[in-house]
Amino acid sequence: MGTVATLPKFVLVGVPRSGTTSLYRYLGQHPQICLSKMKEINFLSYPGEEVARTSYPWLRFSVRSLAEYERLFEGAGERVPVDFSASCFRSHVAIERIRRFLPDARCFVVLRDPVARAWSAYLNRLAKGYESRSPAEALVPGELAVDNGFYYERLQAFRDAFGAERVRVWLFDDLRARPQEILGEVFEYMGVDRAVSIDTTEVFNRSGAPRSKAVQWLLPSYQRRRRLGEALPKPVLDALQRLGHLNRGAAPALPPEVEGRLRDLYADDVRRLAGLLDRDLGAWRSG
After folding, report:
1. CATH assignment of 10-202+255-286?
2. Greatest CA separation found in the chain?
3. Does residue 175 contact residue 113 with C-beta atoms inside 8 Å?
4. Out of 12, 13, 58, 155, which could bridge 84 as a Cys pair, Cβ 3.0 to 4.6 Å?
């Protein structure tokens, strides 16, 4: 008799630059949770080879078949398997693919002040060598860093598809300010022991400028680290990533004129989102 396939029961569907890497690391410490070693699996957001190449060139779609996807979680045992793929939030095929492959799965989302998220995305692209324009030039409508901050319609689409009880939302600011409390809520949602002690002292993948240009020069580029990922042992890659984090200083301030323009741009979406979540998001409107 063959073994029964293990597939995720929960999917982190979004959003990028909202603390999802830290959350991935924190959940990975829980003995009752099974995470794939690959964080951004992107199987559920895979739109087909042609669309992936032309519309999502910055994303990796290493897992494209159900068999490959199942193998990522085959060692789960009694643990709860979880897929971390923040690309799902914007993928036009993710809802249909979750319905198809994981019909009983529950989703969760981490949202961040869209202005802060856009600035973080810009700084991240700058650090990786993908961006050279000024904030005023790069942070405009039509650019991915900005367009990814409109949450209302996509969140409504996920709730329409799965029901509000199967699409839980947490906020980045709460995770940062009260990590143990928020993790307890996430664990309760997943049906695992919420009292497990988690080390949340380190913040992962944070935005910022390099402390030392010499260290930054010695580190392999982001693109090269991705290529090395298939050749080097995971502890070595983790050490390189950790060194990059340690070399990252505080993020510079967003220019006030750019912030004001973005606050105005997102104002209506934030207002609608506040109604959907039944939560005061006034800080997102005023900064």
Report:
1. 3.40.50.300
2. 65
3. no
4. 12
Tokens of 36: 């794939």
Which pLDDT belongs to residue 81?
97
How far is the C-alpha of 279 from the C-alpha of 169, rounded, in Å?
11
Structure tokens at 217: 């020069």
CA 20 to each of CA 9, 50, 86, 200, 249: distance values in angstroms, whole numbers, following the listed order: 18, 28, 8, 13, 20
Cα separation, 43 vs 195, whole angstroms: 32
Please choose, from the candidates 196, 202, 203, the residue with its C-alpha nearest in 3D space to the C-alpha of residue 29: 196
Is there a contact between 72 and 36 (Cβ–Cβ < 8 Å)?
yes
Confidence at 248, pLDDT banded by 50, 70, 90: low
52 CB contacts (<8 Å, ≥6 apart)? 46, 59, 61
| Angle between helix 256-277 and 152-162 (nearest 10) | 20
Q: For 254-285, how does the pLDDT look when each residue is reduced to its tens digit (9 = 90+)?
A: 999 999 999 999 999 999 999 999 999 999 99
State the average pLDDT for the chain: 88
The per-residue pLDDT for range 155-179, each reduced to its tens digit, is 999 999 999 999 999 999 999 999 9
Quick one: pLDDT at residue 1?
39
Q: How far apart (Å, rounded) are the C-alpha atoms in residues 14 and 155?
A: 10
Tokens of 266: 């997102």
pLDDT confidence of residue 190:
97
One-letter amino acid at 142 equals G
Q: Which residues pair with 33 in a beta bridge?
A: 80
Domain ranges of the chain: 10-202+255-286, 210-247
Instruction: Please give the backbone phi and psi of residue 167, each rounded to the nearest 5 degrees, phi first.
Output: -135, 90
Which pairs with CB-CB distance under 8 Å and at least 24 residues apart come from 193-196?
Answer: 193/30, 193/32, 196/29, 196/30, 196/31, 196/32
